[in-house]
Structure formats: C-alpha cells, structure tokens
Amino acid sequence: MQRVLIFLIAAWSGFFVMAIELLSGRILAPNFGNSIYVWGGVITVFMLALSIGYLLGGRWSLHDPSLRRLAWLLMLGASSTIPVILFGNVVLDWVFDQVRDPRYGSLLAATMFFFIPTAIAGMVSPYAVRLLVRNPHSSGHFAGLLYFFSTFGSAAGTILTSFYLVLYFEINQILTGLIGISLLLGLIATLIGNRENAPGA
Amino acid sequence: MRPVPSLKTLFALFASLMATSSSATNVIHTEKSLYRNIVIYEEGDQRCMSFSQRDQSARQTCKSLGDPNAFVFTYTKMMMGALYLNPTPRNVLIIGLGGGVLPMALAAIYPDTVIDIVEIDPAVVKVASQFFGFHSGPKIRVIEEDGRVFAKRAGKADQRYDLIMLDAFDHQYIPEHLLTQEFLLEIKKLLTPDGVLAANTFSTSRLYDHESTTYQSVFGVFYNLRVQYKNRIILAKLDGLPTRDAIERNAATLEEKLKPLGFGRDWLLPLFSTERDWKPEARILTDQYSPSNLLNSPL
PROSITE patterns, alphabetically (chain B) (predicted)? Predict the structure, then answer.
C-alpha cells in the first residue's frame, strides 16, 4: 500500500508541475504577451526550481524519512500555489508597472509565483526514491520505476491540460482542482503513513 | 499553446500542395523568424507573403505587381469600411503589420494622420519593407512588441486613437490573449469618444459564436461584415453605431479616395449588417477561459 501511494504521489506531482507550467504561460500572457521569451522565462524558472528541488529533496531524505513527510511535501507544494489564485492579477499588474521589459517582467512574475511550488514538487522524487529503496541492489530498479511514474504523470498533465481542461474550465478552476487533489492525496497518505508507523504495525 | 505548427503538418501540407498546384509560383525570398518561416513568392501578377509554403489559405498579404495600389484581399477592403464610421481619423493604431498594405493605404489617403503599428515579429517588418513597399516615417511608427503588452502600456499612459485596427490573426493560429474580453476592454480604453474599432477575424468554426458574444459584451451592437463565410470584419464605434444615413454620406465623400484601392460603396455598403447570426449563449472568452485555437479547429 505504501509503495502504491508513493508511486501515485510521484505521478501526481509530475502531473501537477506540467499542468501548472502550461497554465503559467496563460497567466502571464495578458501582461507580458505570448512571445517566445515568455515561454523561455517560464521554462527556465521551472527547470531551475526543479533542479534545486531535487537537491533539497535528496538532502532532506537523510533525516528520518517517512511517507507522512512525503505527504507534507505534496500538500505544502500545492498550498504554495494558492497565492496565484488569490493575488494573481494584483501581483502581475505590479510587476508590469515595475519592469518595462517583458522578458524580465515575465521572468520575475514566473519566479514569484511558481519557483516555490515547483521546487517543492522537485523534492518529491528523490525523497520518494529514499522511501522505496531497501537495499542498494534494487536502487536502480526503483529509481527507474519512479522516473517512469513521475514523467508519465508529467506527460498526462501536459496533454490533459492543453487538450481538454482549458476547453472546459477557467484557469482558476483548474488550479483549484489541482490543489484540491494534491491536498486530498496528501491527506490520505498522511493517514496511511500514520497507521503504518504506529506501534505494532 | 505555442505558435509553431508541427513539422509533420507543414510537411504534409507542402507535399499535397506540390502535387496540386499547377500555375507557376516563384519563391523569391524566405525568411526564418522566431515565430515562423516567411515565404515571399510571385505568382502571375501577384507577389504574396505566406507563413506556410505556398498554402493559399495561409497568405498574409498579396500585392498586385501591375497595380500596386489596389487591394488584392477582400478583407483589407472590408477593413477600410471603418472609415465609413469615422471618415477623418487622426491617430491610428494597427495591431499586426502583415505586408503593411493597410497603413500604406491609410497614409496615402491621410498624409497628416499619425499611424502606430504594433508587430511582434521583426522579420515581418523587414520583409514588408523589402518586398511590399512598406516604409515607416515621421508619421508612421512601428513598435516591435506583443500587441497586448502595447495596449496595456498605452492605456496606462493615457494614449488615445480614433481608429484601431486589429489584424493579428490568421487561419492557422490565433494569439489567444488577443481575443478576450479583458483585451477588448483595454482596446476600448484606447479609443477616443468617437473612436472606431475594426477587427479582422478568421473564425468560421464554432469560435465564431464565442468571438461574437465576446465583442458584443464589450462594444454592444457592431457591424458584422462577412463574405462567403471566409472573412469576417467587426466594426464598432465607442459612442454607438452611426445611422445608415450618416454611413452613406461618409461613403459618398470617400468614394474617390477609395477608388484606387479597387472598390467602392456599391460593393462595400451592402455588407454592413447588424444581424446577430450567432448563438447568443456561447461562452464569452476571457483571460481565464480562452481556448480560441481549440474552438477554431474543425471538429
């Protein structure tokens, strides 16, 4: 059960990141346009945040790793996306007034909104590897499986968001749904983590 | 979301066109830009700019080599219908340059009018100057920027125009942030009290309904000019549409000036319609909901 949940969390985390990345282009377009450099800025921020997330996640996995803590990461990452819904327009207008060049405007706005959620999502993968691996012999096997689920989730998040979700829902509705699912999944993992960690389990 | 048609699509398109096109086309220039490949070719009496290899429907601009002043496209003629609503524009904004046919025609008719053109792609500006006789000058300014960013910035700087022309769409790709209620409100803010908006849109699909309700939500009643369900021009005026009489009077005074472009009021006036031939329940496009390209794809 633990393992299934860990793979599920990794897959969902991949889904979440790509869905948010696609939406971020949409969120920035009214203020900074749809030029190639807006996408360049968005992708840069997401890649940089993921790289730092991997680093931090691996580090954090050294100290008392547990499914419960993995669930916290998931819920924290999702919660840190809430400001986009609440203050999106205000912050974007502020950046628009401060920064004339849309390249740096979009880079700054993308950093402010998406760096932290994406970095936390990046922490999930190495942390999950630590939870899965019991001995060095099978470490590559589990790392491979985890990459599979996480990247498969990313692919699913990309196609579902760009082909279908934007056709039926508003951006904020999609964001709310994504955050809701993360919190729900995190909650379930916390409960199961608690039970399996309880004495006698 | 990115404005890049897949290589495969282009390839297939190219192959099919190569098989069917028989008249002699002569590619005279190609230009790679950040956004697309631009092809300049000549065919018969015409020189055209296309964003896709010789695909007829992807032609952005054509000019007649024998009669360079005359408009080749129906849509540019229809866009000039905006002048029937306001025959003396002094400050014009055009979003989307193409070959520069519209600004050059306006500048010829109104030498003292200031024309701002916003074009996202520097390569388009380059080929418009090189191959289509476009040139900027003291009265004609080209701003290389995203149209949405320009409109927002201009609004904050309290700039005003008495004629705004939106010409940033083509058959294959719609910049979705330029077809939302919020964008149109930003454009509306740029209009003088008697200002006129002319929008060239390509929608023939179910996007037509969404586009219509979106424009209606911002501008109220507008003139809807359609030809053969291919071209669609929306003409709106900030202080309400003028009466039929006023339009006919303006058309009469403009007749001689528009004649060199290759059309007259006998052709253009009957196209002016306020009939609402769309589904009124179609969801309005907003910055939150703007799947224009998905809605525009054939189902």
Answer: PABS_2
